């Protein structure tokens, strides 16, 4: 006797999970005789909390499709792995001292146990973990290919458009070097840095090795550059925009500031046009495509320069005469003595001083640095007077004389100088890191221009220009002010002394806010006036220069011309700060709100008056190009991707440094593995954690100390799934050619932009270099919604330890508190459990409703902090994995977010029990009949088969569950237990509920898994209606119903209707005047 209860469910699910694993049922290999179908899940980060019921939503959907496609004859690749590098594991390591690998391995085992018990059809033999050296060996290898590559815009492209080729592709760096040897870069069209100088072949050939490498950095796909980053000193690392909120780190809440730093970057901007075009070739949700388009941010417009009005002299700006008299920065009476001593020091530098001087002399870091320079009573090792920054090198003497150094630093600070110190060992062991930190400090320090002459001394204004990109050059006569990003390099140079404190204060706040925050807060208005002015080149009017955090240094030029009459954000800014608003586009007045139009004519704009917008744009571009102050240009908002983190738990770079140059390790020496270190936090001098490693070097040369970002390993993992154990190549070409690309990718919306862009970028680069076949990695994408938590609240009366029930809370001043949902049955709180939950609740008092404490309810994100997490282990323990799978699909459309309510799961469980009972009698005995099915039973079956096929094809999983329930109800009503009906139904249900269907399939007499069955396609013949129940109307009112065959002639229907007793009753024996028969619709009798 077999009753479908908790014990039987547990037995069935354990039995089949063990059998699947033992037999390797879901293992797959390339098979050219079968069509392939590749289903991919966004592999999870294995957190310590394990899965909650929201996590498997997309996995269940992808598993249903995978199982269904197998039944339809496809060779299905459905792998799973783990995106295992991450900040949480590193933070836990910092707190506990436990190696992140140990924590990660333990978490992965928890995830695998949970995933297995839900019954997923993953090919676990293909599992990858990004933290496995055998995996990240190939991440490092791909980095090496990108380091040794450049983007040639002239090269015939590999991406096709409707009207031809998209020119431009990635090429080996050797082709660039060959062209430089022949012709220099005069004829090269490449994705490169904007400040790349033009050189001849002779100049290239005369470069030394270091100069050649510095020049190639302008072109490499993977390269080093000074970049604005989100720096979190407390965590000792750069954070992505996603990891910063309200100026603090999302993890830990530590302050974050925007600074310039030498970073590895990826030249993703080279692929901007291809990334845009590719969106038209793939089946992705339009909102996701639009997010990608916005991120790439293509715009056509004009880049032009605004000249600055002359700057005041140091004296006019209020700089102290002693501190601002040029390079003489010591007391006058000691100057000559100290100057002579300094000369002696210059002649006899220490080894480390000589090394550092070679790197900073002649403004090689972008700033003039002096060595052995007298300040006050001291001689500084190095100093940048413009930035008021002293650089000190400390040998062993300084370790024993810290008090002297402290006093010296205090004096220099009093004189207005900042001090940065490095040890001799740092210079010897990791010179690139020293130079990076030094350049960052110089770039971010405010400039005082202490030696700049006044306009009268020099006879002309400052040479600096402000470069602006605009898509609306037609509105330039309405530009009444400029706005710079707070991080713009000119801010410190142009700000007047009168405005410096205000500007510095604003910059300090702005640098702690992420770019994402600044972009999203469109209605927030803030800014500061620099005191400087620029000249509008079209009307020669002087306009003020402001700074505001709505302008980003990394987007465009970091400066905008503000046209408040015709831009909403500029208008709010102008109104807030009482700046002029000029109308230059014909239409409604602009005093109260901006008027934005691309169709009107231009007014108040000199030679542009009367032109349409398009005509004025063309005229404006022609004007700036003729004057030599600008050019028409296509611009992209997307910046190159930062590719380094100051963390331990990440992929090490396959890079070492020799004579200050970055070099790649040999391929035979991959992987470069993470070394053991004593602590997982930055060093006391601010270096990344890897600086703690002892004897970690490449043939005596220092390794790169940063690690790759979290997205590195996830930007190519679908290729490794194709050939996960290959030790010779990242994936065999035969495997790549068979599996090609991902047919269906299901993931959360949190991956809708960054991960997808980086994956598409790497795929295109690898294709260009000949390693893969696909231009786009993911053909079809679905972003699943979230399963939200049902949070429960108790209401504490303010200032007491008394709690009032939800229905009475408005009568008191209360504070809502989250309560663990495990203590709530429906809405009723288990008071004793609540008292035992926390010590501060032990003596709590309660004001009840009808003898119960009723909790409040709110739908929120499912999160441990809100105590609303539902563990799938608990659901499976009580109802089984099949019930969980069906219920998650039943909750609503996959793409939508929906709240979890455990109370609703009982209906799905009862459905499965009812399905089980179709095969058993009332005592639980097996009772399946070989009797031939009736047409009515076949109709029920084939209606369901049709719905299943249509819904899975359209990814409408929730409506399929409803159809299964209707089907089982109808078959139960028909008391159907016929094998010819139940067997196809088992196959159809198996993608949704694999355990119960495997058990029933076996009981039906099969020796192989239901996975190997063939999905029975519906037969339209069984869906055709053979009869119809006609409503019979007497004088316009329906009085009864009668069923007739649909092919019965009208005359026969009329005879049978008139012969009916029910009709005779209503006609009272009167002969009908007319009988109207509408086939398949109605019969109307008129008397």
Task: Furnish the topology, listing elements before pairings.
Elements: H1 6-23, E1 36-41, H2 56-71, E2 75-77, H3 87-96, H4 100-117, H5 133-147, E3 149-152, E4 159-161, E5 164-166, E6 169-172, H6 173-183, H7 201-206, H8 209-216, E7 222-232, E8 237-239, E9 244-245, E10 248-249, E11 257-266, H9 272-278, H10 286-296, E12 298-308, E13 329-330, H11 332-347, H12 351-360, E14 370-376, E15 378-384, E16 389-394, H13 396-400, H14 402-414, E17 418-423, H15 424-429, H16 431-444, H17 455-458, E18 465-470, E19 481-484, H18 491-494, H19 497-510, H20 515-520, E20 528-535, E21 542-547, E22 559-562, H21 568-577, H22 613-627, E23 630-636, E24 641-642, E25 655-658, E26 661-664, E27 697-698, E28 701-702, H23 717-722, H24 733-739, E29 742-748, H25 754-768, E30 778-784, E31 787-797, E32 802-804, E33 814-819, E34 824-825, E35 828-829, H26 831-837, E36 845-847, E37 856-860, H27 872-879, H28 881-890, E38 898-899, H29 905-917, H30 935-953, H31 957-973, H32 979-989, H33 994-1003, E39 1027-1034, E40 1037-1045, H34 1050-1059, H35 1061-1067, E41 1074-1078, E42 1082-1086
Parallel strand pairs: 1-2, 1-29, 13-14, 16-17, 19-21, 29-30, 31-38, 32-36, 39-42
Antiparallel strand pairs: 3-6, 4-5, 7-8, 7-11, 9-10, 11-24, 12-18, 12-20, 12-23, 14-15, 15-16, 19-22, 20-21, 25-26, 27-28, 31-32, 31-33, 31-37, 34-35, 39-40, 41-42
Helix pairs in contact: 1-33, 3-4, 27-28, 28-29, 28-31, 30-31, 30-32, 32-33
């Amino acid at each position: 006797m077999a009753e479908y209860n908790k014990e039987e469910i547990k037995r069935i699910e354990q039995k089949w999970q063990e059998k699947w694993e033992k037999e390797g049922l879901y293992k797959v290999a390339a098979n050219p005789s079968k069509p392939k179908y590749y289903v991919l899940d966004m592999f999870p980060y294995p957190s310590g909390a394990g899965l909650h019921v929201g996590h498997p939503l997309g996995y269940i959907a992808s598993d249903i499709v995978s199982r269904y496609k197998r039944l339809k004859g496809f060779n299905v690749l459905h792998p799973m792995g783990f995106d295992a590098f991450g900040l949480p594991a590193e933070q836990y390591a910092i707190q506990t001292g436990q190696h992140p690998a140990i924590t990660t391995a333990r978490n992965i085992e928890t995830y695998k146990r949970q995933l297995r018990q839900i019954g997923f059809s993953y090919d676990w033999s293909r599992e990858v973990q990004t933290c496995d050296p055998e995996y990240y060996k190939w991440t490092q290898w791909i980095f090496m290919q990108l380091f040794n590559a450049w983007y040639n815009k002239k090269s015939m492209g590999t991406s096709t458009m409707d009207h031809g080729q998209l020119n431009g592709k990635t090429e080996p760096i050797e082709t660039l070097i060959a062209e430089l040897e022949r012709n220099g870069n005069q004829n090269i069209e490449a994705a490169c840095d904007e400040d790349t100088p033009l050189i001849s072949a002779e100049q290239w050939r005369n470069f030394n090795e270091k100069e050649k490498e510095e020049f190639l950095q302008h072109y490499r796909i993977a390269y080093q550059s000074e970049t604005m980053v989100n720096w979190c000193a407390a965590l000792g690392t750069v954070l992505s925009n996603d990891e910063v909120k309200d100026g603090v780190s999302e993890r830990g809440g530590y302050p974050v500031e925007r600074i310039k730093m030498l970073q590895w970057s990826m030249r993703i901007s080279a692929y901007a046009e291809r990334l845009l075009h590719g969106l038209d070739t793939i089946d992705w949700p339009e909102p996701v495509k639009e997010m990608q388009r916005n991120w790439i941010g293509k715009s056509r417009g004009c880049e032009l320069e605004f000249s600055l009005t002359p700057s005041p002299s140091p004296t006019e700006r209020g700089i102290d005469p002693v501190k601002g008299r040029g390079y003489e920065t010591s007391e006058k009476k000691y100057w000559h003595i100290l100057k002579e001593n300094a000369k002696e020091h210059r002649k006899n530098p220490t080894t480390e001083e000589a090394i550092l001087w070679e790197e900073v002399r002649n403004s090689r870091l972008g700033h003039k640095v002096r060595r052995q320079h007298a300040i006050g009573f001291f001689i500084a090792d190095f100093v940048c007077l413009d930035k008021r920054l002293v650089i000190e090198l400390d040998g062993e003497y300084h370790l024993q004389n810290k008090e002297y150094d402290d006093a010296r630093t205090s004096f220099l600070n009093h004189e207005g100088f900042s001090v940065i110190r490095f040890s001799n060992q740092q210079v010897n062991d990791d010179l690139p890191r020293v130079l990076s930190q030094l350049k960052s400090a110089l770039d971010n320090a405010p400039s005082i221009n202490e030696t700049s002459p006044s306009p009268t001394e020099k006879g002309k204004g400052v040479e600096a220009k402000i470069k602006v990109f605009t898509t609306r050059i037609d509105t330039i006569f309405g530009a009444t002010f400029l706005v710079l990003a707070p991080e713009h390099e000119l801010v410190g140079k142009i700000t007047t002394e009168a405005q410096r404190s205000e500007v510095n204060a604003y910059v300090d706040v702005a640098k702690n806010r992420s770019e994402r925050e600044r972009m999203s807060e469109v209605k927030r208005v803030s800014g500061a006036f620099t005191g400087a002015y620029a000249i509008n080149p079209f009307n020669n009017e002087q306009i003020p220069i402001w700074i505001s955090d709505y302008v980003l240094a990394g987007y465009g030029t970091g400066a905008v011309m503000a046209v408040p009459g015709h831009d909403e954000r500029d208008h709010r800014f102008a109104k807030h700060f009482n700046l002029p608003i000029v109308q230059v586009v014909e239409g409604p007045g602009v005093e109260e709100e901006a008027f934005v139009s691309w169709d009107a004519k231009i007014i108040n704009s000199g030679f542009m008056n009367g032109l349409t917008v398009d005509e004025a744009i063309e005229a404006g571009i022609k004007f700036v190009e003729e004057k030599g102050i600008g050019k028409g240009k296509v611009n992209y908002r997307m910046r190159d991707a930062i590719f380094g983190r100051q963390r331990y738990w990440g992929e090490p770079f396959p890079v070492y440094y020799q004579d200050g140059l970055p070099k790649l390790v040999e391929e035979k020496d991959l992987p470069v593995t993470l070394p053991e270190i004593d602590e997982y936090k930055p060093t006391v001098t601010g270096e990344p954690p890897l600086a703690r490693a002892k004897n970690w070097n490449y043939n005596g040369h220092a390794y790169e100390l940063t690690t790759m970002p979290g997205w590195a390993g996830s930007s190519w993992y679908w290729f490794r799934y194709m050939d996960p154990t290959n030790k010779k190549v990242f994936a065999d070409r035969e495997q790549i050619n068979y599996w090609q690309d991902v047919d269906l990718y299901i993931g959360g919306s949190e991956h809708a932009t960054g991960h997808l862009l980086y994956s598409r970028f790497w795929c295109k680069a690898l294709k260009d270099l000949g390693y893969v076949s696909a231009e786009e990695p993911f053909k079809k994408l679905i972003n699943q919604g979230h399963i939200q938590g049902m949070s429960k609240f108790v209401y504490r009366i303010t200032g007491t330890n008394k709690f009032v029930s939800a229905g009475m809370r408005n009568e008191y001043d209360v504070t809502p508190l989250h309560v663990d949902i495990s203590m709530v049955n429906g809405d009723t709180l288990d008071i004793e459990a609540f008292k035992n939950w926390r010590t501060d609740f032990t003596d709590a008092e309660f004001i009840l409703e009808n003898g119960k404490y009723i909790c409040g309810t709110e739908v929120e994100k499912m999160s441990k902090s809100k105590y609303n997490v539902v563990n799938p282990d608990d659901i499976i323990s009580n109802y089984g994995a099949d019930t969980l799978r069906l219920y998650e699909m039943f909750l609503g459309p996959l793409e939508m977010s929906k709240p979890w309510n455990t109370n609703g799961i009982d209906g799905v469980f009862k459905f499965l029990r009812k399905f089980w009972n179709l095969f058993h009698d009332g005592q639980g005995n097996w009772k399946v009949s070989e009797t031939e099915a009736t047409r009515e039973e076949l109709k029920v079956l084939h209606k369901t088969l049709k719905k299943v096929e249509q819904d899975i094809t359209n990814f409408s999983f929730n409506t399929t569950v409803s159809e299964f329930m209707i089907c089982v109800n109808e078959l139960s009503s028909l008391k159907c237990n016929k094998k010819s009906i139940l067997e196809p139904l088992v196959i159809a249900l198996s993608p949704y509920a694999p355990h119960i269907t495997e058990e029933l399939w076996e009981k039906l007499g099969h020796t192989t898994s239901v996975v190997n069955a063939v999905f029975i396609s519906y037969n339209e013949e069984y869906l055709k209606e053979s009869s119809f129940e006609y409503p019979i109307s007497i004088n316009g009112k329906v009085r009864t119903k009668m069923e007739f065959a649909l092919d019965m002639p009208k005359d026969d229907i009329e005879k049978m209707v008139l012969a009916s007793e029910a009709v005779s009753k209503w006609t009272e024996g009167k002969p009908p005047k007319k009988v109207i028969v509408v086939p398949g619709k109605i019969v109307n009798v008129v008397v």
